[in-house]
Amino acid sequence: MKKFVLFLMALLPLAGQAKTERITLQGDHSQLVGDLQTPDQMGKKAPIVIICHGFLSNRNMPLLKMIADGLEAKGIASLRIDLNGHGESGGKLEEMTIPNQIEDLRKTIAWVQADGRFGQIALVGHSQGGVVTSMLAGELGKKTVRSLVLLAPAGAIRDNAISGAMFPGGKGDPLDPPQFIPLGGDKRVGREYVTTAFWLPIYETAGNYRGSACIIHGTGDRKVPYTYGLRFHQMWKGSEYHQLDRFDHGFTQNPKQVADIAVAFLSGKM
User: Fold this and answer.
1) Pairing outcome for strands 118-126 and 77-82
2) Is a pLDDT exceeding 80 seen at residue 139?
3) CA within 20 to 30 Å of 221's CA: 9, 10, 209, 254, which one?
4) What per-residue confidence (pLDDT) applies to 172?
């Protein structure tokens, strides 16, 4: 009997423990895979943060997992999603565009709303994910997107398409791109990625957002200069801006510091 009681006591810490659930949902043109992370004591209609990775990345980027873990400690759920053409989600990279990733995120929000367990929704986006989240937030407004955190948002994408910087050696006609643009190795994007990026109204659309926002960018970012993140801050009156000295595009100098800033902001707004 004593051994049985000790066995039950050993199980007690596991009761009500936080959990991570693998979920699948239908995106714009393929099945999407994500990790739904919920705290151990989640109230009815709990707040949730949907977290989006950047170009050629995925939901398992350590920084994004740190943010999810930090939110969990604050009693906030999160959903890290692989957008089409990335990670475990379906779709080919050469068929991926920012507009169809925006539709992926729109369908992810609809999935969260239909689930019934969650209330307020916030978004986090790194790099290209920052463009995806900011533009959809501008479309949906603060009634749907309570708060928004952008991590090194890739506002340079349209400029890069226009200048031809997306092509190898910076040489190519963005108005008449080839069927595929090589990225190195066996990776490539399709013609439509460039043609849609050329006309992409990033700031024009994101500028319609009126909810709370936080932008984090490093001065050492050579992929997307910090001035693109600063532009979001200047556009959104009352937004919070953190400019980190010498931090690169992936915040590899101290991802925990970045995660802590994001979590502190979100936990104070939800």
Assistant:
1) unpaired
2) yes
3) 209
4) 86
Residue with the two structure tokens 């790194």: 126
Which pLDDT belongs to residue 100? 97
77: tokens are 């759920």
Strands 31-38 and 77-82: antiparallel
- What is the C-alpha separation between 69 and 60, in angstroms, rounded? 12
Q: Give the separation between CA 83 and CA 90, rounded to whole angstroms.
A: 8
Q: What is the percent of the chain where pLDDT is above 70?
A: 93
Q: Who's near 53: CB < 8 A, 6+ residues apart?
A: 59, 61, 64, 80, 82, 83, 86, 87, 126, 127, 129
| Dist CA 264 CA 269 (whole Å) | 9
Q: Nearest to residue 179, comparing CAs of 91, 94, 86?
A: 94
What is the model's pLDDT at position 18?
A: 66
The beta strands (E) that lie in 53-96 are given as 77-82
Average pLDDT value for residue range 23-50: 93
User: pLDDT higher for 61 or 42?
Assistant: 61
Q: How far apart are CA 196 and CA 269, in angstroms?
A: 33
β strands within the chain, DSSP E: 19-26, 31-38, 46-52, 77-82, 118-126, 147-151, 180-184, 187-190, 212-218, 240-244
Cα 24 from Cα 30, distance rounded (Å)? 10
Q: Is 181 helix (H, G, I), strand (E, B) or coil?
A: strand
Chain centre distance of CA 2: 50
